[in-house]
Inverse folding.
């Protein structure tokens, strides 16, 4: 008899997710589906609002990565006010925004490493959940935990200094920014008492990388094979091919590294990227139009970015990139768990960028905003911590937003996350009589490598249990577990 | 983080006049209606505290709790967490909480009990924990808090302010 296994919701994933595994008569995994309840009302919510409100409004979308939405919306509105698609801001405005963005990347990546990657690396993915978490990390490796807390705090301080405040920051506005970085703010970040300064953060990021590489050396086979499958990869790259998380052109490569999207101008994305709707999912499935939904799906995020770029424009991260690429002989990395490695290389890069930017006197400039010929629409694309984030707005002559289209990072990774679950399920759950904790953990590890943020910042106290249900083909619950 | 006293910074004990140092921490998303009720309350309490020097009080806020909040908590004797709740009695609930190793199931946020546990494990500090949850009703992406949640907030504020003025009473309140 065929069976349906439901894991609901996925633990330690923001928002609500559910995994359904359908077993055939032979007990093999026939099909797997990751259902994500995505909030889709936002595009309608901004309709009729003045365009200049968008950079603040969009922060309501997510309490996890509000800075990414803030900057993507601001970039789109730069185009609307005639400041150009990424290259028309004043040096002060662009560098302030970059500092804000790399602060966001640094704190978010540090958090992911601490919360999600390090417990799995320290204890193994089959360890019990009560041990495999941040409290467990603190007990097992206090120094690592203390450093992770300070890395997260430092990134938050960078954001607060550039965005103006922690919640609903207003730093980026259409055409520029509304504040520069004072000398006092700069000195606090650049020369703060050790270890709360940029140099220490570079050291900490290097230490985290060495920790991960030590794990890799001991567990190479597992890391290289766990949920490893070929895919396309997409991200922004700087026009010279460098890693650039704030601005660039869109590039995609296939699983062998061949370019399949050739450095596309961001404003033209809609002619090349489509979103497929499937009846069983609330979340769409993006793909490259010329390859179609079957072959044109792609991954975004740290793994994808380090596959698309030619180089990293900071020396320490570039050195790490070369070692990382040597593992695959220069071919793209397609192993799910290599995402953690890529993420830490980006963390180091972000620390280097922050340190170098803080030494730039342009941050104290006073020319903050520009505007030019008003345009009816604008696209803002940014590399958010979890991957490429698209914001597209159409604005009427009355300055009100008429329409919006957002493709968030987690949506871009919808198909890869489904494939990751399927890969794990076929490997571990074929012929399985019951769902073990280890099996559930493996599914979660595969999903969490993508660091999905399921768009729900509403978190009222006491929510989010883990419920596991075993349902037969008649819809009857055979087994149910709560964690 | 901000303090209402001239020398009442996080981690310092000077200027508190011998009173327990209290961190009042509101969290939630004010862009999601009643989810922001904890933020609104901490903003109003901070404004209230500014009216007279209360150097033992420190205020902070964020979308959700996270690891770095353990560091902030470590410099205080009491931490009062302010949050929204969708299924509890009206108008609010006030409870004593302690460190818990049971981590809440979320990728990017921590429970107040987890923050206190991390505070204990990383910094050897054991501030008393108090959790004030205010009943909310609507969580849509709309700036306006519901009138019912606003009423609950006012009730919570009226109840909490005398305790913040007298932290020793605060320590007794909610303690089992």
């Amino acid at each position: 008899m065929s069976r349906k296994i439901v894991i609901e919701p996925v633990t330690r994933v923001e928002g609500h997710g559910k995994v359904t595994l359908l077993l055939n008569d032979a007990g093999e995994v026939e099909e797997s589906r990751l259902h994500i309840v995505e909030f889709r009302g936002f595009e309608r919510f901004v309709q009729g609002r003045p365009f200049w409100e968008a950079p603040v409004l969009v922060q309501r979308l997510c309490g996890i990565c509000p800075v990414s939405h803030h900057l993507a919306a601001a970039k789109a509105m730069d185009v609307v006010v005639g400041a150009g698609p990424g290259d028309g801001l004043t040096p002060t405005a662009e560098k302030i925004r970059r500092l804000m963005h790399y602060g966001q990347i640094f704190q978010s990546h540090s958090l992911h490493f601490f919360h999600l990657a390090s417990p799995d690396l320290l204890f193994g993915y089959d360890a019990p959940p009560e041990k495999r978490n941040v409290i467990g990390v603190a007990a097992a490796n206090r120094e690592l935990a203390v450093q992770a807390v300070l890395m997260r705090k430092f990134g938050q301080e960078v954001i607060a200094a550039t965005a103006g405040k922690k919640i609903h920051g207003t730093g980026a506005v259409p055409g520029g920014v509304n504040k520069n970085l004072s000398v006092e703010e700069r000195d606090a970040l650049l020369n703060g008492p050790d270890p709360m300064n940029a140099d220490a953060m570079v050291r900490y990021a290097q230490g985290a990388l060495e920790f991960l590489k030590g794990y890799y050396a001991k567990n190479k086979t597992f890391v290289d094979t766990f949920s490893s499958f070929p895919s396309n990869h997409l991200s922004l790259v700087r026009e010279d091919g460098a890693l650039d998380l704030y601005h660039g052109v869109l590039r995609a490569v296939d699983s062998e590294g061949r370019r399949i999207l050739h450095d596309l101008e961001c404003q033209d994305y809609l002619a090349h990227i489509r979103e497929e709707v499937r009846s069983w999912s609330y979340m769409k499935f993006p793909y490259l139009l010329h390859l179609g939904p079957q072959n044109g799906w792609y991954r975004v995020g740290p793994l994808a970015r380090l596959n698309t770029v030619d180089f990293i424009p900071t020396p320490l991260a570039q050195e790490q990139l070369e070692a990382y690429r040597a593992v695959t002989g220069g071919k793209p990395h397609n192993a799910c768990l290599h995402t953690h490695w890529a993420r830490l290389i980006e963390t180091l890069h972000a620390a280097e960028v922050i340190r170098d930017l803080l030494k730039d006197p342009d941050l104290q400039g006073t020319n903050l905003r520009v505007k030019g010929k008003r345009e009816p629409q604008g696209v803002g694309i940014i590399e958010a911590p979890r991957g490429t984030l698209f914001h597209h707005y159409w604005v009427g002559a009355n300055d009100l937003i008429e329409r919006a289209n957002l493709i968030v990072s987690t949506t871009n990774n919808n198909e890869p996350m489904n494939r990751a679950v399927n890969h794990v399920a076929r490997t571990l759950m074929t012929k399985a009589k019951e769902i073990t904790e280890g099996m559930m953990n493996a599914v979660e590890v595969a999903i969490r490598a993508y660091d999905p943020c399921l768009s729900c910042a509403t978190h009222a106290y006491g929510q989010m249990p883990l419920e596991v249900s075993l349902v037969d083909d008649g819809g009857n619950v055979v087994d149910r577990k709560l964690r | 983080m901000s303090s209402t006293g001239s020398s009442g910074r996080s981690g310092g004990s000077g200027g508190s006049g011998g009173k327990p140092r209290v961190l009042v921490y509101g969290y939630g998303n004010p862009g999601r209606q009643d989810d922001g009720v904890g933020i609104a309350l901490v903003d109003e309490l901070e404004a209230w505290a500014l009216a007279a020097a209360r150097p033992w009080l420190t205020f902070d806020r964020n979308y959700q709790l996270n690891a770095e909040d353990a560091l902030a908590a470590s410099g205080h004797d009491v931490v009062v967490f302010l949050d929204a709740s969708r299924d509890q009695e009206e108008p609010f609930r006030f409870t004593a909480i302690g460190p818990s190793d049971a981590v809440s199931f979320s990728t990017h946020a921590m429970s107040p009990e987890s923050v206190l546990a991390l505070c204990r494990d990383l910094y050897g500090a054991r501030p008393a924990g108090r959790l004030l949850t205010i009943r909310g009703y609507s969580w849509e992406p709309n700036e306006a808090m519901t009138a019912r949640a606003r009423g609950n907030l006012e009730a919570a504020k009226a109840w909490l302010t005398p305790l913040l003025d007298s932290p020793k009473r605060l320590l007794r309140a909610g303690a089992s």
Remarks:
- The first strand of chain B starts at residue 2 and ends at 3.
- Confidence is low (pLDDT under 50) at residues 5-15 of chain B.
- Chain B has one domain: 22-172.
- Residues 74 and 123 of chain B are 7 Å apart (CA to CA).
